[in-house]
Every structure is written in structure tokens, then in C-alpha cells.
């Protein structure tokens, strides 16, 4: 009797350049793809609403593509360690393969599973499929992790070049019997009451085929203008590949080599480096979403939360046009231009004086590309509490930022048109930028004083 291989899909919802899938094919036994919706394991962060929407459609695409090639994807829900072991036993599996995860709770689950499956006589292997460089392989001269981006990326580039992507399999040997599977619709990943996803449907087409099309389009049409136009939110010069990387519909190896082969000489590949740096940091600091990376920021005197101010920010009703435009783009599309992400984050933290964790939670729930590393890493960067952080006294003035990067008002006109209309009735500013800047700098001075007292 054949002993099938299980390929456990996680944040790698693709067929091309999938090392775990390639290992299963090379084993020359029937293959069963498995996806586990784990909302029960300890310390696993539940997905936000926009992420659940994307996951539904990306899984549907993956299931269809596996079937076209003769394979199967089974869906099961529950704590991953139990579900994977039960599935392996149900199928009489001879091997379980997966691509690695890098968050602390996920690594603990995977390590325990690897040992228990091997104790049962099952072959288990994990692979590097989601990062260009494994986090533990990039170290300083002293053998420690990096805390500054530039030397980190130089150390990465001094390594052997990232491997070439693996080809997409044309045929997959499926199992002789169809294993039991949950119905994707029963997972209720899509919003219904109310259905707020109209803008997501208009903006995105999840799945590997659409991801590969977007990569080709970007490298053909947009990458040449990337450096000079990437900071202008109305220019359409960004890659829009971040959700594709977050869900693994494209691997970073595929993007890396396609960019080089296209002759790209822009700074685009350094954006992959920033992503690598975020995961490098999460690997060494698993509590990145809840704890200040720089402990001196624990002394930051956050005032009592103003629910009204937080709601105004979330809904794009702050009275500052580019902030409101960004927050409305986020709610409508599940995405926000990167420059505007920095502006809106700085406004929340340094003008509204609201803890960066409240903003990180909102982005986690509303972004289709929010992942466990990049989302908190970038919020801590803006806050000044993270790795290679922007100094706290760097406060983005939203009015000056709008003049510099949206001078003609195209972005604001698209997402917050009342600010551009002659008879529009925009909301009034909820804070004074000058006064709140002074308050933020005074709070930052208290952090510095507390740090000096601790080290003296």
C-alpha cells in the first residue's frame, strides 16, 4: 500500500517554488495538501477581518489549481498539532513536509510536531520557502542579531545569492481515496452581516495566477519609475505585491530572480530586504506586537486613551486631508500606500498620543497584507521603539507631507473628496499640530531621562 505524503500549506499558498511540495513530488507517492485553520493553539494570533477575506479566496484558488493537476487540498480546523497528527494517522501518511514559519508560537508548534511525528515513524522535513535568508544565518561579527537595517542587508548580500525558484509542477499524484475535508464556506471567513468587502472585491483578485500577472505587469510597466515615484500615493508606482508575499502566492525567490532578469536597477529589491529585516527581528523577539523592542520606551507617558480620537482616526474623520484619505483607502480596499501608512501612524502616535499598539491592532484587522512581522515591526519603527527606529522627534507633519507628496491633491481627491470640493463640508481638525508636537517631544524627553537614570 502506498504511504502518502502530506504537504502542510501555511502562508505559502502556491505551487511554484514550493520546496515542501517539490520534496513530496520527489518521494513519488500520492500527495495530499493540507491547510489547517488554527484559531485554538496557545498564543496564535487570530486573523483580522481583511486577512480572513483574502485567505478564503486564496485557498479556493489553490484548491482549484491542485485539482487541475491531479492533487487534493483538504481543509481542517483546530489546533494544528492535533489536526496534523490525526490527519497523518487517518491517511497512513509516510511523510509530512512543510515550509518553515518564524514566529515564536508557530516554531514551538512545528518543533513539537516534528518530534511526535518522527516518534510515530513518519518522515518529517521542513524547508526554507518564505524568506531569502534564514534568520539565524545572518549575524553580526559578534555572532548576535542585527538591530540596524543597513548592516543587516549588507550581511545578507554578502551571502551566496538566493537560490533559483523551483518550477511549478505540471502533474501531482493524488490519493486513491478522497480524504474528508471541511467545506471552505463553513469556515465563515467572508463577512456577511454586514458585507463590508465590496471594495476588496473591486480591488483584488487573490490567488497565485493573479499574483504572477501582477509581478509581470510591475516589472514591465512600473519598476523603472519606482525610485522617483514610489512616495507619491497617486502615482501608481508601487508593486502591490505585499499581500502576495504575505500569503505566499509568490515566493521572495521568484520576485528576486524575476527582478534581476528584468534588468531592474531600482531600489525595489531593498524592499525585500526590509521584509527580511522584519522577520529577522520577529525571530529574535517573538513579542514584537505587544512589547517595545527598546525597553526604555516602557517609560513613555501615554495619556489616557481617548476613544473619540481613536474612532476619528479609524474612520478618516480627523480633519487632516491626507490622514483621512489614507484611512478611508484602508477601509475600502484593505490597503494603504506606504508613505501614507507612515503619515497616518505618526499622526496617531505623535499627534493623538495614542499607543502604537492600538494602531497596530487596527491595521492587523483591516490590511490584507498584515503579517506577524511587518505589521508590528513597522509600527514600532514609526513609534521610535523598534529596530532601526525613526527617532521619536521625527514627527510627520501631515500638511507638509501632503504638499510634498500629493501637491495636486489627486490622492486626497480620490479618497476624501469633500476636502477638494468647493461646497464640501470636511471635518474640522481634532488637534492642533503645533501643540501636540510639543507634547510629544516633552513625552520623549521623559523617556530619555528615564533611560539616563536607569543607566547612571
From TrEMBL:
Q: Where is this region: Disordered?
A: 162-185
Q: Name one GO molecular function term.
A: deoxyribodipyrimidine photo-lyase activity
InterPro entries annotated for this entry?
Crypto/Photolyase_FAD-like_sf, Crypto/Photolyase_N_sf, Cryptochr/Photolyase_FAD-bd, Cryptochrome/DNA_photolyase_1, DNA_photolyase_1_CS_C, DNA_photolyase_N, Rossmann-like_a/b/a_fold
Photolyase/cryptochrome alpha/beta domain location is 3-132
Q: How is the cofactor bound?
A: Binds 1 FAD per subunit.
- EC numbers listed for it are 4.1.99.3
This protein's cofactor list reads: FAD
Give the UniProt keywords, A-Z.
Answer: Chromophore, FAD, Flavoprotein, Lyase
Which positions does UniProt annotate for FAD binding?
226, 238-242, 268, 369-371
* Pfam families associated with the record: DNA_photolyase, FAD_binding_7
> GO terms for biological process?
nucleobase-containing compound metabolic process; response to light stimulus; response to stress
Q: Point out the annotated site residues (description: Electron transfer via tryptophanyl radical).
A: 302, 356, 379
PROSITE patterns found in the cross-reference section? DNA_PHOTOLYASES_1_1, DNA_PHOTOLYASES_1_2, PHR_CRY_ALPHA_BETA
The Swiss-Prot or TrEMBL record describes its family as follows: Belongs to the DNA photolyase family.
Q: Could you tell me what this protein is called?
A: Deoxyribodipyrimidine photo-lyase
Amino acid at each position: 500500500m502506498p504511504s502518502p505524503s502530506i504537504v502542510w500549506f501555511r502562508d505559502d499558498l502556491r505551487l511554484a517554488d514550493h520546496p515542501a511540495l517539490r520534496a513530496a513530488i520527489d518521494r513519488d507517492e500520492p500527495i495530499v495538501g493540507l491547510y489547517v485553520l488554527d484559531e485554538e493553539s496557545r498564543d496564535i494570533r487570530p486573523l483580522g477581518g481583511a486577512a480572513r477575506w483574502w485567505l478564503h479566496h486564496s485557498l479556493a484558488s489553490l484548491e482549484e489549481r491542485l485539482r487541475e493537476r491531479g492533487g487534493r487540498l483538504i481543509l481542517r480546523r483546530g489546533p494544528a498539532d492535533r489536526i496534523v497528527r490525526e490527519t497523518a494517522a487517518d491517511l497512513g501518511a509516510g511523510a509530512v513536509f512543510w515550509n518553515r514559519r518564524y514566529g515564536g508560537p508557530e516554531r514551538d508548534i512545528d518543533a513539537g510536531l516534528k518530534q511526535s511525528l518522527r516518534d510515530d515513524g513518519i518522515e518529517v522535513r521542513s524547508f526554507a520557502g518564505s524568506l531569502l535568508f534564514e534568520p539565524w544565518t545572518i549575524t553580526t561579527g559578534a555572532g548576535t542579531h542585527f538591530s540596524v537595517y543597513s548592516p543587516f542587508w549588507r550581511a545578507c548580500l554578502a551571502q551566496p545569492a538566493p537560490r533559483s525558484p523551483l518550477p511549478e509542477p505540471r502533474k501531482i499524484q493524488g490519493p486513491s481515496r478522497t480524504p474528508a475535508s471541511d467545506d471552505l464556506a463553513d469556515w465563515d471567513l467572508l463577512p456577511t452581516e454586514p458585507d463590508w468587502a465590496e471594495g476588496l472585491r473591486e480591488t483584488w483578485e487573490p490567488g497565485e495566477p493573479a499574483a504572477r500577472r501582477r509581478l509581470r505587469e510591475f516589472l514591465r510597466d512600473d519598476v523603472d519609475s519606482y525610485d522617483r515615484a514610489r512616495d507619491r500615493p497617486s502615482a501608481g508606482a508601487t508593486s502591490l505585491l505585499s499581500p502576495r508575499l504575505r500569503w505566499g502566492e509568490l515566493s521572495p525567490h521568484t520576485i528576486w530572480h524575476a527582478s534581476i532578469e528584468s534588468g531592474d536597477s531600482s531600489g525595489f529589491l531593498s524592499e525585500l530586504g526590509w521584509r527580511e529585516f522584519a522577520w529577522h527581528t520577529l525571530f529574535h523577539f517573538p513579542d514584537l506586537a505587544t512589547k517595545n523592542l527598546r525597553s526604555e520606551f516602557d517609560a513613555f507617558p501615554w495619556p489616557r486613551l481617548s476613544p473619540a480620537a481613536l474612532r476619528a482616526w479609524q474612520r478618516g474623520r480627523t480633519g487632516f486631508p491626507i490622514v483621512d484619505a489614507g484611512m478611508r483607502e484602508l477601509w475600502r480596499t484593505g490597503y494603504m500606500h506606504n508613505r501614507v501608512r507612515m503619515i497616518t501612524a505618526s499622526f496617531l502616535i505623535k499627534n493623538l498620543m495614542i499607543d502604537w499598539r492600538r494602531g497596530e491592532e487596527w491595521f492587523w484587522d483591516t490590511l490584507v497584507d498584515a503579517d506577524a512581522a511587518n505589521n508590528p515591526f513597522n509600527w514600532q519603527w514609526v513609534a521610535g521603539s523598534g529596530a532601526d527606529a525613526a527617532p521619536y522627534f521625527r514627527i510627520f507633519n501631515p500638511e507638509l507631507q501632503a504638499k510634498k507628496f500629493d501637491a495636486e491633491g489627486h490622492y486626497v481627491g480620490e479618497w476624501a473628496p469633500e476636502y477638494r470640493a468647493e461646497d464640501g463640508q470636511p471635518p474640522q481638525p481634532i488637534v492642533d499640530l503645533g501643540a501636540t508636537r510639543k507634547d510629544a517631544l516633552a513625552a520623549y524627553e521623559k523617556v530619555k531621562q528615564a533611560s539616563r537614570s536607569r543607566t547612571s
